[in-house]
Amino acid sequence: MNFWGRFVQWVTNWDMWLAIALTLAGAWVVIRLSRIGINRFIKGSGRALTLRGILYSLVKYSVIFFVIINILDRIGFDTRSILAGAGIAGLAVGFGAQNLVRDVITGFFIILENQYTVGEYISTAGVQGFVEDMGLRVTKIRDAGGQLHIIPNGQINQVTNFHRGPLLATVDVPIAYEEDLDRALTLLERVCQQVAEEQKELIVSGPQVLGVQNFGPSEVVIRIIARVRPMEQFQIERLLRRRVMEAFNAEGVEIPYPKQVMFMSGLTKEENRPYGVETARG
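== Small conductance mechanosensitive channel ==
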């Protein structure tokens, strides 16, 4: 039989094409059911999300590999020789796939050591953001600007995880040199107590007034700190600044801003007082 005759016989082999169609449909059903089953039996967030993604990937790629071998076998390829030669081919491909192997091995140890999980905020490979997805080969991170960064696991050499333990909220409050320091410290202590009562769910310890942190050109800087739940430090810092501003306005405590004072030569200090000029607040 010539080539065209064999080709027509192969194309019109409806039993083969039906078997292939049933194999593809069965694979699609298995992948869908596996996803539903994994989501149903592995619930929760964080590490559970990571485990779900890994298991689903393993099932999906295993089914795809089985389908490819099955289809090749039905078409007429000798899959046994293909599988037997996979070892030699794999050795050859391995020299060109070192990065892929490194990514997979690194991903395995990231998961094994629980360095981070889906939903946590991390900094790695020059990127900061929330982990949206992670697998054996890549980690997907969404930064504050909304960009999605897909990082091969082999490039992840160091990880800073912002979700493991309380974080520090820090607020520096400037006080004019002319103000009564003890009075300002008392007001800040009162503000700290108020915020601690308002945010019991978010604050682990504090807030507390550490005291004078620095001396500026026109201000004394007082530092307030608090230990808060992961990723809540920005909210607590904003609330502390607002409460400090409200308290200072109510009690008439001046928050310093740039000033220019002109002195006329030959006049006394009292005579020069009216010439003080304030610049725009900065």
